Amino acid sequence: MRSVALSQKQPLTYKNKSKMKTQTTEKEQATDVYALLPTVAGKSPERVHKVYLKYPEDWKAQYNMLLMDGDTCEDCAHSNRCKTIFDGDDTNTSCQFHPNRFVRKKPL
User: pTM (2 decimals)?
Assistant: First the structure.
């Protein structure tokens, strides 16, 4: 058996570099996808479940139903009606009506 010093070892090379794949994390892939989708300032695209990323039209529909970051059903003028019709909860962060009918309550 022939011994080779560590300094003499050659790095592995590939004959066809196109077969080499770069690996990215799910978060990096999702960030790239979010850059391609229409978003609104103040509404985080990460709040839409990642399964919808495969279907851009469905993702857009789910995104449009989200309330702005920090808003809940309790902040909406229609919250009493929603709770009656949909048995809603004041802590929901997406609108149950389609299209989104969120209207901020007027201060008393």
Answer: 0.64
